[in-house]
Amino acid sequence: xxxxxxxxxxxxxxxxxxxxxxxxxxxxxxxxxxxxxxxxxxxxxxxxxxxxxxxxxxxxxxxxxxxxxxxxxxxxxxxxxxxxxxxxxxxxxxxxxxxxxxxxxxxxxxxxxxxxxxxxxxxxxxxxxxxxxxxxxxxxxxxxxxxxxxxxxxxxxxxxxxxxxxxxxxxxxxxxxxxxxxxxxxxxxxxxxxxxxxxxxxxxxxxxxxxxxxxxxxxxxxxxxxxxxxxxxxxxxxxxxxxxxxxxxxxxxxxxxxxxxxxxxxxxxxxxxxxxxxxxxxxxxxxxxxxxxxxxxxxxxxxxxxxxxxxxxxxxxxxxxxxxxxxxxxxxxxxxxxxxxxxxxxxxxxxxxxxxxxxxxxxxxxxxxxxxxxxxxxxxxxxxxxxxxxxxxxxxxxxxxxxx
Length: 404
Hints:
Layout: E1 6-12, H1 18-26, E2 34-38, H2 44-53, E3 62-64, E4 88-90, H3 98-108, E5 120-122, H4 130-141, E6 148-150, H5 158-167, E7 171-172, H6 175-186, E8 191-194, H7 210-223, E9 242-243, E10 248-252, H8 268-283, E11 291-293, E12 302-304, E13 307-310, E14 318-320, H9 328-347, E15 359-361, H10 372-384, H11 395-403
Parallel strand pairs: 1-2, 2-3, 3-4, 4-5, 5-6, 6-14, 14-15
Antiparallel strand pairs: 1-10, 7-13, 8-11, 9-10, 12-13
Helix pairs in contact: 1-2, 3-4, 4-5, 5-9, 7-8, 9-10
């Protein structure tokens, strides 16, 4: 089945069974960028099938599995495997407990493996407590790709908040991590490809993968053809939405000249298809994303008192801990952490790709918004916000300051 124009698949409140996923496997979905399955009754079996389907979709970026609780196994980590191309993952309202959080934390990063693709992770409205927060924090320790994390509306208190804060500031390596660091040093260091799903374009060291490999083959194949082939089809085309039956929607983009007309140029139809495929390849790459470097190989590691210290995860720029059970002590941990990150960014002139937290959401916890520590956190984060602009002084203010 050829529906190569589909860019988004949205199924709501319909039971998605193995047969439905089997049909998706038979479709040509080279342009599909987002799969949204809201309350579709996923099981461990269907989730495994879906996770095996993802690497075959060259343009897939976003996966939304909200409202699909799978009690017992909670196998959501399957869609976060090393071969998964997902960059944005939403697992809201899935009744995820500390058991599921443990596997998700390991999928984010361990001493030996790291997720190099996932940029945003939404775990709000679940049942994650301090133990689960500890597992998530362990994953953040060894992850330098995740940009946004939401743990809103869970059961995290001061203890869980402390674990997360420790992962975001300077920490000492464990014995296992020190051994792995020495192993990597003996091998001449480790520098992988682009962190976020091999999406970097300005480096020649991109690792081979199902996604990037197909893109490279497409580019090479297209370069051998005549430059005029399918030239009109490669230009920007108007968008067109095709709505299916109730409960299912497909957002699509129909290229010019496909309604009863042959593609122009020397290549005819084949040339148009090649140009369309090349356009998808170019649109799916983001040149402004950082190269993945193993956290244990951080060049700013310090040796103090017989221990090895490395900076915490400074690539995470957005953290949502609102509507939890964080008290006064937890707020102290948060304030200490953001002050460390702010000082480090100012003194060491951290790179733009690792500025530290720029957004922190902590409203509606077990602390009043008038508490001094809460207020201090808000004041500090205001200046960290990239959209912050100091209030411009008026001429009257200048006159008053001179007179005073």
